[in-house]
Design a protein that fits this description.
single chain; about 75% helix; mainly alpha
Length: about 450
Amino acid sequence: MSQSSSSGRGLFSGNLGYVLAVAGSAVGLGNIWRFPYLAAKYGGGIFLLVYFLLLFTFGYALIMAETSLGRNTRLSPVGAYRSFADKQHPFLKIGGWLNAIVPMIILPYYCLIGGWIVKYMFEYVTGGSTAAATDGFFVGFITSNFTPVFWHLIFLGCTALIILKGVEKGVERASVVMMPILLILAFVVAVYSMTRPGAGAGIAYYLIPDFSKFSIMTVVAACGQLFFSLSVGMGILITYGSYMKKDVDVEKATIRIGFMDTTVAMLAGFMIIPAVFAFSGGDATAVNAGPGLMFITIPKVFASMGMGTFIGLAFFVMVFFAALTSSISILETCVSTLTDELKWSRKRATMFMFFEAIALGVPCSLGFGAWDFISIAGLSILDMMDFLASSILCPLCALLTCLLISRVVGIQKLIDEIKSSSAFRGENIFRFCVTYLAPVILTLVFLSSVAATLGFIKI
């Protein structure tokens, strides 16, 4: 079982390892709380319908594009862009660096939130689930100056240890173990939630489209969720594509990744929406709690249920696995860039990113406590970093990738790369989406995100 290419670059062992690693990257915190929250806010069933339509066009094409670019060049984002950006399009080199910078911005605050999850998991293991469900527990925890930092270091340390083991023995092996467990736990919690008294109204709201609730913002929200959920525009898919063997069927792998990502998102909806409906007496607005849904509302829901402590523990273990597989992919992308561009060893690159995540993660944490007086455009330090990475740089990176492929690389070159191991039945969809549809949608998401944050529109 080969572990490296002829150039010494680490490779996934095969199709299964690649699919589970990328699915692990895609399945993260966005699936668990953001998907149910947006589905509830934008009409339940109609949101799902729009989401699926976008998944099989826009999402499919962007995963294929970034993955095949990585496999073709065998380079991380900076090198992949540089290998094609010619004298006529020098500005596109910036796209490679932007793709490299995004995960470096995301890693610190993502691991901070991962630490919050570890804290809640610890409470459920040690019998503190009742306290975790009380009013003020979450706010008291995140506004503490030192406790959140401790749990941040625990989660970050778990991520770094896996990365130090390399692509196959670390990233792939962790994903192969954690992804099946995550799916099983998600299914168990979803079944339990759907069988609670009063949950039927939540299931109906979640699944049955109500076209009267459709608006352009439904499309923007569904697209934004799909965009961020699939790890597009973060350099991750390019990096993981560079680890893919040439005989792996890119199209089949992409379809499986999309299926697993959507399955977890759907299960998250079945876990949360029926449970909150049952808990709130059928009030749909109770699901519209944003980030507080996972850490404030859901613990209260579990506390009101029989077997609530056990189900709550299963839920937070599942969320921990989802967050960890995503943080692994974020850190791996950073490490890949540093090893490729600076010729650092994997250990040196990992340790550099470990301390970078601490240096930026601590201010994010203190932004809710001692440094809460720091506000940028009305946003906390963490919210500002998330806005910069997710709402500005990610859409911009994906847009630049589409331009690189359609204007410089030539879309036929990537089609040939995909066809070298795939039948590629979706070639026409891919060509249309990358050339025309994706740039329009990405621009729409980018502009709507900026406008919403500045208060010009309400999303």
